[in-house]
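Can anyone check this?
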Amino acid sequence: MADAPYLIALALLEQEGRRALPLQGTSLPEAPADGADPGEAGRRQALELLVRVWQRSEAGALRRAAADDSLLLATVPMDCLLDTLPALKARWIAQGDGAALVRGLLALGGRVWRVSLENRQPLAFQELGADR
């Protein structure tokens, strides 16, 4: 992966019966260490994306489209932002296959985490593997 990966937050959702995949991202000085989660940068990206999703709710009812995998973080190489990532997004919007989206993100050479929040616990990241 590139020396300076890009960290993206993805919300897999449906609004008024149509799939949508809003994204939020930032460049990182370096990839998270093996076994480490995306830390504060991941928390910030998840929060910013969720504020955008919250604002979007004024246009109609929202629902998660991929159960517990509906809020994801991923590291991707910068060079995939113009071609590969938009193609993955378009494929998910057309087909709704969340497992294929995760496999596609992993195939870019980065890592993918599910974002979750348990009652009275801090935001948690669970790394997803290629077995999806």
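Reply from J.R.: I decoded it. The two ends are 21 Å apart (CA to CA).
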